[in-house]
Write a structure and sequence with these properties.
Blueprint (H helix, E strand, L loop, with lengths): L2 H48 L4 H10 L3 E2 L9 E8 L2 E7 L6 E7 L2 E6 L4 H31 L1 H13 L14 H45 L5 H26 L7 E5 H10 L9 E5 L4 E5 H18 L2 E9 L2 E7 L7 H4 L16 H12 L2 E7 L2 E7 L8
Parallel strand pairs: 7-9
Antiparallel strand pairs: 1-5, 2-3, 3-4, 4-5, 6-8, 9-10, 10-12, 11-12
Amino acid sequence: MSILKKISILFLISFILMSVIGFWIDNINSKRVDELIRDKYLKIANEIFQNIDNSKRVEELISKYNLARVDKEDKSKREILYYEKHTFGFISIKKASLEDEFLIEINFLDENYNLKTPNEDNINDKLMLNVLIFLDIFVLFLIFLYLLKLLSPLKKITKGIEYFSSGNFESKIEITSNDEMGTLSNTLNSMASSLKELLKSREELLRDIGHELRTPIAKGKFVIQKIENTTQKELLQKIFLDLDLLTNELLELEKLNSTKLNLSLFSAETLLTEALSKLYISDESSINIEIKDDFKIEADLHYLSTALKNLIDNALKYATALPITISISTKKICVINRGKRLSKELEYYLQPFTQELSQRDGFGLGLSIVNKILAKHNFSLDYTYEEEKNIFCLHLDAKVVVR
């Protein structure tokens, strides 16, 4: 779950809790104020009602409690807090929801008093409390918006890091703030520039090394032709051939780290044909091909055919009996040969310069190159051993990520 979603959930929980608490406090205060007002003015109303036959005393009480005579109010506009019916009349206390004044109505026979109370401070305090609660909710909302603004650069930083991880060091994270986010973006941009220069220097170094190695190897091959001793000549030819092969494999392995994929859509049969064309097979009967489903693949044909070629080459090299089998089914290509089971887990052989101790024909780079190619495509390789057969399968059903 993203940070934005977490903050949004926390804000929503806080908002709901504060709203519930505010409503609960307002409800309690409303009831408390209404009870206080009712008890206060009920006492006054009862005192007036008891002296209603003495108009002078009634006027004194009206003056004493700062009451004012008003015309009879429309009942539909006021809420009744209290109503009591007597033998010859009634007493009622009413209020309006947005007013801090109350109306006392006293009726006895033909006498009727509609009295308006002075402003109540309790009501003002209640309204002030409601305003403060509203302000708290409003401030909480502003804090939420401010946090979103503070965290918004994280999206740019995350996107920039994704670009860097895919080898695109040309992109820049554009954040100009002077806080930690700005510092982080500048640091990441500097790191990307440094990595770009480092990779460029390494590529140039490897290219130069490859060029310098090929020159003496070519000269050595030329000199070997002048050697008359057959045994020494074959040995030197093998040595120079291994040096040439090792140089090419090392350069190919390193090139995979920085090369972008050239994606295209092709069939599995085309992939197999391209892979076989890179091998030198003297006897075609050494390979048995089974095509159950010729599916489409979106990938780099050059590199993926190189990976398949390495698997086929290993299968031919280490088979105890021929032919080997290449099976093509839905989103999967398997290379099968009869031979000894691998003594270690597959992950061990995916590292450079690792191979079986009993099998020293090569440099242990073939599966490492296969692993790098598949990783760049988001494809996978698995290994099983069934019925004395080694089965290496390319799973080509993952979504391709362009790197």
